Fold this sequence. Notes:
- The chain is an alpha+beta fold.
- 21% of the residues lie in helices and 37% in strands.
- It has a ten-stranded antiparallel β-barrel with strand order 14-15-18-20-21-22-23-24-25-26. Strands 4, 5, 6, 7, 8, 9, 10 and 12 form an eight-stranded antiparallel beta sheet that branches. A five-stranded mixed beta sheet has the order 2-1-13-3-11.
- The longest helix is centred in the first third of the chain and has 37 residues, at 61-97.
- Keywords: Coiled coil.
- Residues 20-54 form a coiled coil.
Amino acid sequence: MRTKLLLLLLLWTGVVWGQNDSYKKEIESLKEQYNVSKERISKLEKDFEKLKSNLTTTFSEDLNTKIKSSQLDIQKEKDIFKNTYLLVESYKNVLEKIKKEQKKTIDSLFVFSKEEDKAYFPEVIKSEKVETKTYLYFGENKVIDKDLFSNKKSTETELLKSLLLDVGKESYLGDITIPKKGQKFPFYNYDMILCDEHYSFQKLAIEIKDGYFNDIVAYVTDDSGDVHVFTNQVGISVLFYSVYGKTKLMYYLYSIRKEDFTNKNLNQHYQDNALKKLYIKVTDIMGYNYKIGNHYIPHDLAVELPQDDVEGNKTNDRSGAIYQIKQNTYLEKIVELRAYTDFLALFGQSQNGLAQIEGRAKFYLFPYPFRFMWSKKYLGQVEYLPSVSPYVNYSKFDDKSKYVNMNKIDSIRFELVEKRFLTMGLYLEAFKWQHKNAPVSLSVFGVVDYNLTQTNFGTEEIPEEIAIKALKYGMGINLNVKRFNNFGFSYKFEYSGFNYEDFNSDKRLLNLPSWIPVVKHEAEIFYHPNGNPNQAIFTRLLTYNDAGKSNNQAFYQFQFGYKFSIGSRSVKQNLE
């Protein structure tokens, strides 16, 4: 529209020029304006380059402000020059079409205007949406910008990309997204209705445990700059975060005030009663997404976000940030192995196995926590059938004591349980209760396993060994207490029975008892280095009691051992 009006104005001016031949003075004025604008643009651009060069040696908010101001000045001056250039072109059209001047005459009048001067036009700036930045999180608070290698081509770069950007099933947990630092969100009330009060996001701490987000702690600020801490009460399943995360609220925990303790509202310094009625929706401040083929149960993991990248750059200052969480799923982190000896057998006080080795692997079934008794008051969380663990145990006995004497089986039947050399079975965790803020958990479990014991119908020189088979099944309770994150105590009570009648068809084993009920107590103390629970030492006391009406037999085991792990590892070779 502005161009059309300008053309109409110039057409009218052309009519006037037809009566007055003073248009050459107008062209001279236009020429001066044209050249001055070009010179000013050149000067502004030189000044801008000088400011940019200072960024290589120093950085400050003042310098950043000057650079932005210089960019705006250049943009404004280029807008002025563009309008002047278009005005010159309009004059040319008037002289050619209205005044009927020859092209040579017009070119001589406007020799200062050149086609290449369009380079002084302002750049067309497209409005760009600030996209969420993606980073790779490798644990131990190591964060790398995913675009670091995007424009680099070399053998070394390709090798690093293959190692760092690999999102295979064996290492890629998923994406955790957090908002931009300082981004504002509304609070909710308990009925998930938006409130008028708002908060600004600062940071997030996350603990993933047993297949769910166990602990989520958010640090937010209000308009006065005070920090308020909110947390979840019940864990949120990793597998169903996208479904149930939007229905979960975070509860006010405490505040970190800017002012000191001398203010008159001292009773509100640590906790603010008004904030106890405000809640944060979990999905407002934390998103979780997985890639197809990588949806699995992770190992225990603690993450604090945002983290600076390896070059020290802030990761969520300009936009939200996505962190690709990766883990090494070595076999050693899944299969738990124990090797131990029995002190009572070692010193000849019992006929237990001298050396034993035990293996166990935990698989999650339904790691979905629920609020205990569905009460508004937080009484902890419960899980139903959260996991199952297959296990195997092998015991090495002394050659003189490894056999059960079938001639005395009626009076010493409990040796069938004591001298088991191989056990294979399943440990099913049926019900589990725990409180996030308590170092204790309680679970009810079921157990079923297949057992082998040996007897000898030959002689020591020419043995005729027969394996006595039994199926054991039962249930019990397990209490876990932690003193530290890596030092704790475990107690198990189990009532079970061994079925011998249905698994032994050899006629020489007809005098076997059909069923042996057993009460078992197990107490264990363990210690492991922080962050490595599969490298631990432990001591364990077990008691087995015959629960039959006519028997009071029992035996005891006092074990000391090492929990360790095995697994494949890539071998590094040093080349000369």
